[in-house]
Prior knowledge:
Four copies of one chain form a homotetramer. By secondary structure, chain A is mainly alpha-helical. Chain A is 77% helix and 0% strand. Chain A contains nine helices and no strands. In chain A, α1 (3-20) packs antiparallel against α3 (44-69), α3 (44-69) runs antiparallel to α5 (93-105) and α3 runs parallel beside α8. The longest helix of chain A is centred in the middle third of the chain and has 27 residues, at 109-135. Chains in contact: A-B, A-D, B-C, C-D. Chain C binds chain D through residues 1-2, 5, 8-9, 12-13, 16-17, 20, 23, 76, 79-80, 83, 86-87, 90-91, 93-94, 97-98, 101-102, 105, 107-108, 111-112, 115, and chain D through 7-8, 11-12, 14-16, 18-23, 25, 27-28, 30, 33-37, 39-40, 50-51, 54-55, 58-59, 61-62, 65, 69, 190, 196, 199.
Amino acid sequence: MNKSRVEAFSDGVFAIAITLLVLTIAQPAASGYTELRRQLLARWPSLAAYAVSFLVIGIMWLNHHTVFSHLERIDRGLFYWNLLLLMTVVFIPYPTAVFGEALRLGHGTQTAAVFYSAVMTVNALMWSGLWLHASVGRRLLRPEFPESQRAVSTYLFTGGSLLYALSIGVALLNAYVCLAFHGVLALYYAFDPISRRLEHSEGQPP
Amino acid sequence: MNKSRVEAFSDGVFAIAITLLVLTIAQPAASGYTELRRQLLARWPSLAAYAVSFLVIGIMWLNHHTVFSHLERIDRGLFYWNLLLLMTVVFIPYPTAVFGEALRLGHGTQTAAVFYSAVMTVNALMWSGLWLHASVGRRLLRPEFPESQRAVSTYLFTGGSLLYALSIGVALLNAYVCLAFHGVLALYYAFDPISRRLEHSEGQPP
Amino acid sequence: MNKSRVEAFSDGVFAIAITLLVLTIAQPAASGYTELRRQLLARWPSLAAYAVSFLVIGIMWLNHHTVFSHLERIDRGLFYWNLLLLMTVVFIPYPTAVFGEALRLGHGTQTAAVFYSAVMTVNALMWSGLWLHASVGRRLLRPEFPESQRAVSTYLFTGGSLLYALSIGVALLNAYVCLAFHGVLALYYAFDPISRRLEHSEGQPP
Amino acid sequence: MNKSRVEAFSDGVFAIAITLLVLTIAQPAASGYTELRRQLLARWPSLAAYAVSFLVIGIMWLNHHTVFSHLERIDRGLFYWNLLLLMTVVFIPYPTAVFGEALRLGHGTQTAAVFYSAVMTVNALMWSGLWLHASVGRRLLRPEFPESQRAVSTYLFTGGSLLYALSIGVALLNAYVCLAFHGVLALYYAFDPISRRLEHSEGQPP
């Protein structure tokens, strides 16, 4: 199984999913153009949900790139974990649209926040599954990937799933706080020094 | 004709078609947000159809990759078979959307299941055509591709068309069973040991 | 200006435009599912328009690939001709959707056929412009591209524009014949022995 | 961090965003097909907005390609500036659709023009941020990139932000003039001799 072609396919899927996010912001109805300013301002939750999901998918892409750079090769099992992971990534525009629209309309906000958080949790579980498939017994890891780093990464991936599960609880308290919580989680993964350290060891045999 | 550029074009089309599947799940109408939980739960058939079609296209992509790895070169004929194949792949989101919506509404379910199965059957026929064009008289196969494997593959591709034709019959019995049948067919192709054996011989001259 | 990156960008645009064609076939309204078979059968013109436009874009992609393989390098002028060409390729799903829908509804068929043909004519003019920019005075052609072939290609590109202009006349006579005419034109370009000869000389210095 | 994979991801996002622009032109309603010619002619502002945004994104892609060709390497900071830049590029189809629709309906035209111009201004600011991150102290620039050129480029990027901010003022005067102003700005960047000079020095060590 050709690793670089699976990477290219995954890159394509990430690029398209992140771009389809723009379709999640509902166009004003024709009748709404007489009060267009109000219509556009009322869509700020959709814009916020767009920005959060955009950051989430962009950082996930970076994460995907880092994980694959540590793999020596890929097997059928990893291909299917990757396919399940992509299935949850591609799905993200749907709960994003629902979340933004619920906040705009002021109805179903709690349900929408729980839905969004649940999708993110399933996505985090797929990441954990992919990582565990690749790393348990060092099945697919490069020889130069440090053993100490392996434990840290496993801790980070499973811990991420717990944080996302926690976001479902936050969704039950307040939908706006929940959206902000997802934004903070994305920034945490963006600036997290541990994954940065992981990246520094990238491609450097000891 | 440059083989790797045709592969890259096909990869792009597969990646986009699989991502557009997310648009097949209908957004709730604005009036539906007062009962959003019920609206979302009622969409489980659309979600199931999304998951099945996602697996189908993902596994087809893998299959495409395997077949092309056994080709020495491509000609105009193969280009057109590939274009017809892609035409049916790109079309898949349409019957997927119709199938999910019919199951949600409880109307037209049999018609939708037959339509979905017929599209998949035409797709399987395009696969057979592409394979036969490439393999009859070993027209485009690599010299190291084993002759014994060629007969097995031809049997698998034409047999696949029959299985998909059979799914039209299943659609006439029950639409839900038909959707599950397509999921099982996808899993069969995912775990089928014969195509795995095919892959193992990939790129290894005897 | 990096030629291979412009090719990759163009390939991506072709792949996405061809895939977006599936969105041109209107989904049945929720109320239409009680008579789904009739609804789907009534959409055959949209399906035919989808198939014709799919072939047109697929063959254009092949054409693009062939033309670029004869270029030694690209300049800013070619980049802008290519951008204008892509602007007309990306637009094709719009008249395709209008054409299919007009034929289904039985209203505005002549207007839709003229619109579709006019867009194809503008597209053919962009092809001519791109070719003339590259070939006049052999500005960007590879040295090994035969001078005799250059005249033939110029004749084919400008002749193609005339054929597409003729399709506007056919549109005024009958919309169905016009759609079939576009299908035949696509097949003509697919099987045309001259462009095949052009391809055979590809990359082969004399 | 792998520079070429970030470039490929960005290329993909540009290619998809430019192609999604076709979805910004509203399809006529089924009832509109009895007067299809009038319906299509009334959409000329959407077509004009499509053309302007297409040129803008296409030229931005070229610009992106030129800037990245001058970078020695990329770091996390540049990755995030690039992600913010792409977030504004992907968003462009939304204000494009609103702008075209407002001009067609004759309502909310000023708001739509201000909205479109504001999005372009934010986009220009992201370009400035990305450039400053890469060039201040020559952080990521290739050694052969001339110091004199660096000042010129910084001036061009920040000046571009001011021009786009000026377009908000134009939007307050007249929406049609504003759209034309954006078209002229795109052409200015397309033919600007300074960025062409920048390109000529590309990859040529002194």
